[in-house]
Design a protein that fits this description.
Radius of gyration: 22 Å
Number of strands: 15
CATH class of the largest domain: Alpha Beta
Structural class: alpha/beta
Shape: globular
Largest sheet: 7 strands, mixed
CATH topology of the largest domain: D-amino Acid Aminotransferase, Chain A, domain 1
Helix content: 25-40%
Strand content: 15-25%
Strand order of the largest sheet: 13-12-9-10-11-14-15
């Protein structure tokens, strides 16, 4: 359990690790609003001199206590365009929540008519736009849907003058004393190790000298990881120690203005410019390599208690270190136990994902990182105990979870639209359950569109020019 004292995390490590009972199944080959308006959302409007304390008092409640019987209000916050955010919104709405969205203009979910409010997440002023969205909607819970949104919530907590917002953020994602652990892969694994969770060897890499020390005691292969990255983009598997320093130097360069421009023009991602303008360099860590295949668990949790969980292992992935395009539903007690220990220790709330590697030789589950936000599996309804949206909305509504039927009885999940677009010959397209929102044709049509870089003649031309500038042959498409 976490005691929120200044910079101190007390751990209860009396429980022993649970050995996996899940045998290997697959080799993983493919693998602007005033404070008074905000106060009205949380309770009675305060008088001006006492506004901060009164606002805090109205927000310092178990969620929805101040409006018991009304549907809980949930705000989804994302700086990207992941389809899973739209599907999660649909599941939360079906579970009885009033859902709002703050996202970039091009997010596919903005076509849905289920939202109470749709607000723009502005790259030029992210915390200001996020603060305004929280004030406008007065949610009982805010769910971040990518790592940038998580960091923005942390920054807003530190910078806002509204105590009620700080309480809301802590209620939504956990105690502020744990924020540094949540955003550091090395600190997270160190915590997990002390909790008795099975993890590979790991170490922070503040400098190239730290990398030399790591390699002196750990043989290749090993993995370099950049904090704050996702979808495998900040992960490199190092098979040759001679290449490690070059890879480390490449990964720790200051954010490139040229790459930021490319992201803005070809991908519509204005948030890429933030890192460049701030001159950011990622914090690095090293992990031991686990010979096996990836797996993950999505959990719905509330104040340190896991409410529901879904375990899957990867069958196909976008790349060697990328996200799953096809996954198999499994029941892995070690993964579930590991997730419960960390959720309890950090006092987490909301939707969280944990990534594991299943060791091929033993079937043991090694925790490799935590995603402090919702992941695609969180948006798939798989029946009692695995219905994360229903479990979370039920807790917010002070009612027992309903037994909603699973979306499928199959054990193979084909994530839409990734598999359709990048691997149309995948045999699991014929055998697995496709998480296609057929009852939302506008959303389906948008998700089936090509990526922006391939959608227009001008972006295709610019993309080819970009590849030539890199001295590489442009892709066939």
């Amino acid at each position: 359990m976490v005691y929120c004292r200044k910079g101190n995390i007390d751990l209860d490590c009396r429980t022993a690790p649970v050995l996996s009972s899940n045998s290997p199944l697959y080799d993983g080959k493919h693998m602007n609003v005033s404070p008074l308006e905000l106060a009205s959302r949380f309770g009675s409007a305060p008088t001006a001199p006492d506004a901060p304390d009164a606002l805090a008092a109205s927000a310092d409640l178990t969620a929805a206590d101040h409006r018991r019987g009304e549907p809980p209000r949930i705000l989804l916050a994302t700086t990207g365009a992941l389809p899973s955010t739209a599907r999660l919104a649909l599941e939360l709405h079906d579970a009885g929540a009033r859902v709002s969205l703050i996202s970039p203009r091009h997010h596919p979910g903005r076509v849905l008519d289920i939202f109470d409010s749709r607000m723009i997440y502005r790259a030029i002023a992210p915390c200001r736009s996020l603060e305004a969205a929280l004030m406008r909607t007065g949610p009982d819970l805010v769910i971040p849907c990518d790592e940038r949104a998580v960091r923005d919530l942390h920054q807003l907590y530190r910078g806002t003058s509204h105590r009620g917002l700080r309480l809301l953020i802590q209620r939504s994602i956990g105690c502020a004393e744990t924020f540094p652990v949540v955003t550091s892969r090395a600190e997270l694994l160190d915590l997990a190790r002390r909790l008795g969770v099975r993890v590979p060897p790991s170490a922070p890499l503040p400098s190239v000298g730290a990398l030399d020390e790591w390699m002196a005691g750990n043989a290749a292969p090993f993995v370099l990881k950049a904090d704050g990255s996702w979808s495998g983009f900040g992960v490199r598997i190092i098979a040759d120690p001679a290449a490690a320093k070059a890879e480390f130097a490449d990964m720790t360069r200051r954010a490139s203005g040229r790459l930021a421009l490319r992201e803005m023009v070809l991908e519509g991602n204005n948030f890429a410019a933030r890192s460049w303008l701030k001159g950011e360099r990622p914090t690095m860590s090293a992990q031991g390599y686990v010979n096996g295949w990836p797996a993950n668990i999505g959990v719905a949790c509330w104040q340190g208690e896991v409410l529901a969980a879904t375990c899957v292992e990867s069958v196909s992935t976008l790349s060697a270190t990328g996200p799953s395009t096809v996954a198999r539903i499994i029941d892995n007690r070690e993964m579930t136990d590991s997730a419960r220990r960390i959720v309890k220790a950090l006092g987490l709330s909301g939707l969280i994902g944990f990534d594991f590697m299943i060791e091929a030789a033993t079937g043991a589950a090694y925790l490799i990182e935590m995603n402090p936000r919702c992941t695609p599996i969180c948006a798939v309804r798989l029946g009692p105990g695995r219905d994360l949206a229903e479990a979370l909305v039920a807790r917010l509504s002070h009612r027992p979870p309903r037994e909603r039927p699973a979306r499928t009885e199959r054990d193979i999940l084909v994530f839409f639209p990734d598999t359709w677009q990048v691997d149309p010959g995948n045999p699991y397209l014929h055998a697995g359950y496709h998480d296609v929102p057929w009852d939302q044709p506008k959303l389906v049509r948008i998700l089936m569109r090509p990526e922006m870089r391939d959608r227009y003649a001008v972006t295709r031309m610019l993309r080819r020019a970009w590849w030539r500038l890199q001295g590489r042959k442009p892709p066939a498409n």
